[in-house]
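User: Fold this, then the next.

Assistant: Folding the first:
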Amino acid sequence: MSNRLRRNALIATMAGLVCAAVALNWKYSGEEVSKRVEETGTKILGEATLVSSQENDGNLALDEGEIYSGSDYFDSARLTRQQARDSAITLLQEAADQKDADTAVINQASESIQVLASYTLKEAQVDNLVTAKGYLDCVAFMGDDTISVVVSTANGTLSSEDVAKITDITMTETGLPASGIKILTAN
């Protein structure tokens, strides 16, 4: 009974930490997005806007150039990454919470939630440390044995020195070998 109580406490603690991380990420990224929208006047993909029913020359077409300009790719990528993780965690939590769930299923769900939480923290660390090195923006996507890091630079290219810096940060934060790291520039 004591092991079961510990396991349930661990699951509850991890779920609480993941929820707290999501809430903090949502709060701070929302403030950053709001500032960028106010500064540039550019809409963010996925952002709700009230649209009137008035037609413009018989057309209600959106200007996609406004939606995808600037650093919107990074904001959209972060949002998509977080939504996918939230969805996966919800499904895992539901599987673990079923009253007739097998102990092996509950344990596997708990381990998977811990792995996803670990990925989230490592991605955030890589994102923050790469931008702290002077790059315009960064978003990382971590998998089992790989990580892809998308970086925005002032000139749109990465030198071998840039790749070495980003690889070093990523290896340090994730523990992955250089062969498991893919670095891309955003166009």
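Now the next one, as you asked:
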Amino acid sequence: MSIDYVVASAETVDFSDNSFNVVTACQCYVYFDKDIVFKKIYKILKGSGNFCILFMSWLPFESEIAKHTEELILKYNPSWSAHSMKRFNYEFPAQAQGLFEVEDSFVFDLPVTFTREAWHGRMKACRGIGASSLSQEAIAQWEKEHIEYVNTLPERFDIPHFASVLNLRKKGTAL
């Protein structure tokens, strides 16, 4: 299969109209300028193409490991907004009105298995630590404390997660 990879923001991708059967947004939808993106995706989708949005997160109220890790992140980054996640269904976005209709919407649970090293790496990459504005010193302090914690855990463990999916189908001639 020949695949072309394009690095661009969703708001600036430049594809011809009617280019794709499906567009997916996994873990990134929250960052989109929805006033721009829905119109752009509508144009690049073929006929009755689909725009599928997926969000997945651990459940800290169902996992002592996730809860403890979140508390440690908040110790170093109290302004981190992606903590205390609970299951949710995506609402139909107002910006999709007239362009898309809901084909399917659902939430499901899944266990995700981690090693101590993988969990530490996952948390270091989250926007509460690695993708934040923390100083290198604060990241190093968090990392030291988190490694001490994960070393008390079994080598492999499951963290309960949920996934929320909103599958939208392009309507006839809108724009």
